[in-house]
Amino acid sequence: MHDNILPLLETHFYSVAALLVIAIAGLCWLVKYISMRRLSRYLHKAKQEAREMAQISYLNPHPLIQISHDNRIVYANSAAYAAFPDLGKKGVSHSALSGLTDHFEIEEPIVREIALGTKIHHQTIAPVMRGDHRDLVIYCYDISQRKAYEESLRRSEKRAENAQMEAERANKARGDFLANMSHELRTPMNGIIGLTDMLLESPMKEEQKTSLKAVNKSSRNLLSLLNDLLDFSKIEAGELTIETIAFRPVDLLQQIESLHGPVARSKGLHLITRYADQMPDFIMGDPSRLLQILNNLVSNAIKFTPQGEVTIEMDGEAQERASFIFSITVRDTGIGIPKNKQQSVFAKFQQADSSTARKYGGTGLGLAITKDLVAIMQGTINIESAEGEGTAFTLSIPSKIADETDIASSHEALCHQNFSLNLNAKIMIVDDHPVNLLYLRQVLTRAGFEGFDEAASGREAVELYKSRAYDLILMDCQMPDMDG
Ligand code: ADP
Fold it and tell me: Which of 349, 373, 205, 236 is nearest to 292 (CA)?
């Protein structure tokens, strides 16, 4: 067989070689053709994507501008030409692109706001590399509306601030007016009460005494209303301050008993006081404001109780360290307050019933002031009541057990020192109100003082003071021209 093939190969060698070369060339062409086809498909796809991208940026509703390192506009989308109509004509010298030549060196995007006529644009300026050079792409966003909105918001805030200041000023003016008026009214009232008190001690006909007592009682009622109004205006103005001094709670109870006992008894009521054993001797607080609160609760209890009793209980609970919760309950067996009125009675000028003022008098200010005073003392006030059965108000006030130093400087400690009256003391009394001067004159004369000086104004008092040394000056605070 070999013998047959070899001569055959020898004869056709060139033809076989040619065939082989053709086959290899064909194969190479086929491979190249396939990769070219693939490349062209990739190219086509890339072109498509680039076109889509260009379209997106071209149709973007916000202006997009590219400027080259040699200060030419390389690209601007349709929104850029719409927003800046003369962009084509002015090129990079357009005011929307002002100052950009300073930014060719930036590495990171920067932002700025630029005002063009009535419009304000927010611009993001980003560096992009094109070949070896750095171009800038500027993306603009019209923020005129947002700015206008912000401005109107700022203006409304300013207006609201002004309105609030105006309201505060008006409130202060109202408070000052109320305080001044109450003071002006209280001054003659004190004169009337003081003088009628003194007159009542002098001999007079029974009939005259009855009338004078009525004058005195009406004046006292009026004064208590004025005091309420004054407190009310001080609370409203945030000017009411609370003292913190050492006091004996049992003294409070005794004061209440001596003030209200006779009134209760004249109505046939029992006034009962209870004082818990564990109460400390001295605690810290504001005894005169506590007395005011108790006065209000007890006088209400007596007023709204036709028969039975009024009980005042003082109790307390020691807390950690020297802290102490001081509680007082004023309970009566009176007319009670309907459930739906139990909170509203704490509101200003509110009474449980429209007939209350007619039947019992009052203004509806007492409990509102009481509630505010308790709140200023950081305490709470609770009410329990059933119609026809009675009412109980309970106060809980955080306090402190007084220590030795507190007690040494307390009112009681000072009052228990031995004082004697020096009738030779040089005294001046100052008041612009003649009735008050008359009252003060009589008080001092009754006490045994003689030869004291009188001044009817601050200025007069200062002149007198310059010429003579005084041991004591009793002076009205509020006077025209120069105050106390
Ligand atoms: P006023 O006593 O001047 O009317 P208050 O603010 O002290 O004002 O009290 C408000 C109202 O609460 C009273 O008018 C009364 O209707 C009701 N009230 C207060 N205390 C009692 C009480 N102990 N018993 C029944 N009603 C009361």
Answer: 373
